[in-house]
Amino acid sequence: MRIPKKPVAFCLSIFSPDFPAPCSSRILRFSSGFPAKIKPIYAAGFNHSSSHYSKDPSAGTMLGDKASQSYLMVNSNGGEEPHVWSSREGGCKIDIGKQIFCNRSLNMRNIVAVGFDMDYTLAQYKPETFESLAYEGTIRKLVYDLGYPQELLAWTFDPKYMVRGLVLDKKRGNILKMDRHKYVKVAYHGFRELSKEDKVGTYGNKLIRDSFDEPDYALIDTLFSLAEAYLFAQLVDFKDKNPGKVPEGADYARMYKDVRAAVDLCHRDGTLKQMVAKDPKRYINEDNFIVPMFKMLRDSGRSTFLVTNSLWDYTNIVMNFLCASRTLDGSLICNFDWLQYFDVVITGSAKPGFFHEDNRANIFEVEPESGMLLNTDNGTPMPQVGNTSPNVLSKGLNKGCRVFQVF
């Protein structure tokens, strides 16, 4: 079941401490081709797409302290041309965990707005600490709220065991690894690998279309799911060896449902986020390339927005950690400066339902300093009770960014 795989940070891979990126709104452009008279040298994983930029000497300020000069290369006629950023001359070695792998190009010329999620996108949580915290919280909910034996409190979590892309067979207590044709390559019952005969006898040896879907199966497609998948495997083994110690009537499907309920309880009562808020550095990876990326997008003239399921108070703490400046001793300076990198921030969005056309959730505007919620008409300011005109928040604090929370 161990399938080694490094996580990929999709949106943070185009920067390097030694490779400044130009960001003037007049000169930044991305396209699917290379400049004329330049022979492209592809970086690993980019053989199907590319991006480049050009530099206008009169373009004004460039991004970052080191970005006062552009990287140029000599073409066949002796003139100077801008580097392709993925070339050996213009870039530098990027760790494979930070590279982008794609099979089609995207022309950014027509992209007017770029949006971000926060948890596990901008905020990359440390599995050895954050997932362990989630795992331990889930165990406690199972024991103290859902009637599971206290033996579970001694269990531990291996953050390297599970990977995304697995499928849980809720009814049978199996964990499956399939190929793109939905052929089951490997199957485990708990932590015991099924024989080829058992695997073929249960799942067949040819394509079964429209199978392996809810409600009988669960796809492990997010990093949040890794701890609950590991716990489910532990419970399957525990039930097989100690059938009388699990709650009465708890089959494999019921145990998976209980795990999901326990995970939801941890998130609803704030157990996890309170611990992260106390010490963000312990649970979240620092990334010095996030702010330069935001600046590049903003200086290119594009709008940016953040849509997260986390509520405003937690969002502010995490984004402060990711974007805030630090004092000489390394301590954080907590403020709202990170809002300058966005036009709109939407918290408590309850994705993916937030994007559905029939979504009728109430949207309140957030006053960042106090966290107070103001009524809106689907985002449009409206008078509060006792006032005759809408309460328009000051633009000085948030640099024009508007913050909303969904209920």
UniProtKB/TrEMBL annotation:
<dbReference type="InterPro" id="IPR023214">
    <property type="entry name" value="HAD_sf"/>
</dbReference>
<dbReference type="Pfam" id="PF05761">
    <property type="entry name" value="5_nucleotid"/>
</dbReference>
<keyword id="KW-0479">Metal-binding</keyword>
<keyword id="KW-0460">Magnesium</keyword>
<comment type="similarity">
    <text>Belongs to the 5'(3')-deoxyribonucleotidase family.</text>
</comment>
<keyword id="KW-0378">Hydrolase</keyword>
<dbReference type="InterPro" id="IPR008380">
    <property type="entry name" value="HAD-SF_hydro_IG_5-nucl"/>
</dbReference>
<protein>
    <recommendedName>
        <fullName>5'-nucleotidase</fullName>
    </recommendedName>
</protein>
<dbReference type="InterPro" id="IPR036412">
    <property type="entry name" value="HAD-like_sf"/>
</dbReference>
